[in-house]
Amino acid sequence: MPPEAAPKLQHLEETRRPPEDPIVNADSGAASAELGLVAAAGDAAAVASGDLAEPAELGGRVKLPQAARGRIFELAVYGATGAFIAIVAGLFIELLTNSWPSISTFGLSFLWTSQWNPVTDQFGALPFIYGTIVSSAIAILLASISGVMAGAFLAEFSPIRLAEPLSFVIELLAAVPSVVYGLWGLFVLGPVMRDSVEPVLQRYFGFLPIFSGTIYGVGMLTAGVILAIMIVPTVTAISRDVMRAVPDSQREAIWALGATRWQGFKMVVLPIARPGIFAACILALGRALGETIATTMVIGNRPAIAASLFAPGYTISSVIANEFTEATTQVYLSALIELGLLLFVISVIVNGLARLLLWTIFRPMES
Amino acid sequence: MESAGSVHLHQARGALGIFLTALCAGSVAAILLLILGYVIREGGGALSFDFITQLPHPVGVTGGGVANGIVGSGIIVGIAAVIAVPIGALTAVYLTFFGRGSFAVTVRFLSDVLSGIPSIAIGLFAYTILVAPMHHFSAFSASFAFAVLMLPVIISTAESAINGVSREIYEGALALGLSRYSAIVRVVLPSARSGIITGIVLAIARVTGETAPLLFTAFGSQFWELNPNNPMAELSLQVFTYAISPYRSWHEQAWGGALILIVVVFVLNLGARIALRPMRSG
């Protein structure tokens, strides 16, 4: 039965045509300001193909205030778009120029040395990079599996009566402020991890270095779990949408061949939806990498690289949050801003990749 | 084509698989209820009339509230909306009516990417262009950071709301002799209004729960502060400060603040969804 998957992919290929923006085609230019009823009587086909600009001269009468208002509106639209681009460009330029003292002092060694010493103005970000990667890796590992499963239930197996409220609850989970997650993580999840989860892991898997050592409650694993809870709605919602976008004809075809619902899901829906699910996970990963407040509250904030996931760690965003207002020297401040630049660059790459993937999936379907 | 036993095996595996997906969906939903339950239980005890009307008391003095934080949140988010709504809505108009080709694609892509930039990096941006040159923390710099966070949300929801207005309506307006300006402002935008408002409400909900950029922009304050040029208290920042403090009475206040935050954010999200519903079906 596996060959059944091939025609579906081909079907998806066929739908990938360059997107067309219908409204833009109907652009008639400022010249069409006063068409009068002339155009109304005109052929609908001419309207649709955007031939409105020519008959404008026939209208004759030009009310200036109206045209002026149109001109001002146009300027406002271009101005706003310009402002938006300036903000995004400014964000990058400001972060780059302000981290320049640190970049020129430490160069690339900033990324792989572990000395973080404000007293001697020595700054190496490795413990923070390590903490960010490890906590996000735990988060995406937990969230991708449970999120894709939950998304599959909502898209494929659940009755609609149940899928609607469940989707709603899961989407609300995405709206919970991160400081509330942090609070809950600090006072509820942290103690549970310390008293129940981590001792059990240590008893059965203590021979692994990642589950050895002292148990604190706050630490890398707790941060990873909180991050997983925070990003699981993203994975669930997007993988649900991607799976729903798989045409029903594909499912019906394999059911007709005698496949069960589960086989149909595994052999048809999952292979077609795979790139979208992958994009969902990358997008969620991006959110985990930059999350600040909740992580800061539960990771323990100790700049050390430890093999054990029970040990406290530190992330890039947490160190900015904790130390920025206390930074005294210019190089110190600049080193913290360079960490911000690092987060910026990572998230542009990660999100850019995810968006490109999602675009190739969803845009052709819309048109 | 398969033996009866093999078919049963397939059915059993299928049932197990479907059960596991249901279990995952259920557990994810249960986590929300769990968190909500805790916040209501712990925060409900801290909530009182004094809590929402009084200033914070110093450590050791019982009572006190987060009134200045609630007002501060309103001011900071309000100014942010005033900055972000026109820029965001007009950029969406650009994308739907004016933009074409690779430039419009670039703008849309920038907006999508901006939505993924960590809020702390945007806080640093607000610090370097507003706080550092002025040499003091200010509520206005926090509003700027929030506005940047709101932009992608407003742009993408407004764009899809405008695209949702059928093309025939726009063309009909042009055919009746309206200028492009009038067709957009008097016909298309009013039809897309509920979708655009939804986007604005969602953007407000998004920043209301945001804390990270405030650490080095609004900074926080123990006093009544209504001047946006000065450091200002903000509710989520107060919750953060109280939560990581070593004092038990402050922890209780943190839960109380968290309850207010979560109620506000949920009400905004529910409101946005209800506003969106008729548009989807129609």
What count of helical segments of chain A does DSSP give? 17
The CATH class name of the largest domain in chain A reads: Mainly Alpha
CATH class of the largest domain in chain B: Mainly Alpha
- Overall residue-averaged pLDDT value of chain A: 83
Largest sheet of chain B: none
**Quaternary organisation:** heterodimer
Structural class of chain B: mainly alpha
Taking strands numbered 1, 2, ... along the chain, how are they ordered across the largest sheet of chain A? 1-2
Q: Spell out the helices and strands of chain B N to C.
A: HHHHHHHHHHH
Beta content of chain B comes to: under 5%
CATH superfamily of the largest domain in chain A: MetI-like
What structural category arises from helix and sheet content of chain A?
mainly alpha
Write the layout of secondary structure elements.
The complex is a heterodimer of chains A (367) and B (282).
Chain A: H1 5-14, H2 22-25, H3 38-41, H4 44-48, H5 56-59, H6 64-98, H7 100-106, H8 109-112, E1 116-117, E2 122-123, H9 126-157, H10 160-175, H11 178-205, H12 220-244, H13 248-256, H14 261-290, H15 293-298, H16 316-323, H17 330-366
Antiparallel strand pairs in A: 1-2
Helix pairs in contact in A: 1-14, 6-17, 7-17, 9-12, 9-14, 9-16, 10-12, 11-12, 12-14, 13-14, 14-17, 16-17
Chain B: H1 4-46, H2 49-53, H3 67-98, H4 101-114, H5 119-134, H6 139-164, H7 167-175, H8 180-191, H9 193-208, H10 235-243, H11 248-281
Helix pairs in contact in B: 1-11, 3-6, 3-9, 3-10, 4-6, 5-6, 6-9, 7-8, 9-11, 10-11
Task: Please outline what is shown here.
The complex is a heterodimer of chains A (367) and B (282). Chain A has 367 residues and is an all-alpha fold. Chain A is 72% helix and 1% strand.
Walk me through the structure.
The complex is a heterodimer of chains A (367) and B (282). Chain A is mainly α and 367 residues long. Chain A folds into 2 domains: 26-106, no CATH class; 109-366, Orthogonal Bundle (MetI-like fold), CATH 1.10.3720.10. Helix content of chain A is 72%, strand content 1%. Chain A has 17 helices and 2 strands. Chain A has helices spanning 5-14, 22-25, 38-41, 44-48, 56-59, 64-98, 100-106, 109-112, 126-157, 160-175, 178-205, 220-244, 248-256, 261-290, 293-298, 316-323, 330-366; strands spanning 116-117, 122-123. Chain A has a two-stranded antiparallel ribbon with strand order 1-2. In chain A, helix 6 (64-98) crosses helix 17 (330-366), helix 14 (261-290) packs antiparallel against helix 17 (330-366) and helix 16 (316-323) packs across helix 17 (330-366). The longest helix of chain A is centred in the C-terminal third of the chain and has 37 residues, at 330-366. Chain A is flat and about 70 Å long. Chain B has helices at 4-46, 49-53, 67-98, 101-114, 119-134, 139-164, 167-175, 180-191, 193-208, 235-243, 248-281. Chain B has 2 domains: 4-46; 52-281, MetI-like (MetI-like fold, Orthogonal Bundle). The model of chain B has no long low-confidence stretch (mean pLDDT 91). Chain B has 11 helices and no strands. The longest helix of chain B has 43 residues, at 4-46. Chain B has 282 residues and is mostly helical. At the A-B interface, helix 2, helix 3, helix 4, helix 6 and helix 9 of A face helix 1, helix 3, helix 4, helix 5 and helix 6 of B.
